[in-house]
Amino acid sequence: MRNLxxxxxxxxxMEFVAWFSHKxxxxxxxWSLHKDHxxxxxxxxxxxxxxDLFFLIYAIPAMILIIAGFINSYxxxxxxxxxxxxxxxxxxxxxxxxxxxxxxxxxxxxxGYFAALVKAHQAHHxxxxxxxxxxxxxxxxxxxxxxx
Length: 148
Ligand SMILES: [Zn+2]
Ligand SMILES: [Zn+2]
Known about the structure:
about 150 residues, mainly alpha, about 0% strand, globular, binds zinc ion
């Protein structure tokens, strides 16, 4: 039970980490890696984006935590690692599959939380230069997107 709390806390904390790093790092000094997610050119019609490197960056600490948890039998480390990993899966399913259609799955959701989430992320993509973007989070976004 306590490990479930660790798992959920890690998951929620990752939304904060994702928001923070998206706003201050990816749209900051690592813009060179995130740029191809926003600006499509003919050269980058490959399956992967440089932006995908960020999944690896988050996967590494999660793997280290899980491995360390198993080696030292600290279940809470495994729970935290699992929370980070679950967030990664949720982020990929929502951001890359539902919003950006990177897998041949076409889910259309026109009302409720996920429809509002898609609109909020599309608002992020409506920015034109490195600074005028909005909504850096994914799962948590301003309530106005439920109405618009
Ligand atoms: Zn962005
Ligand atoms: Zn996006």
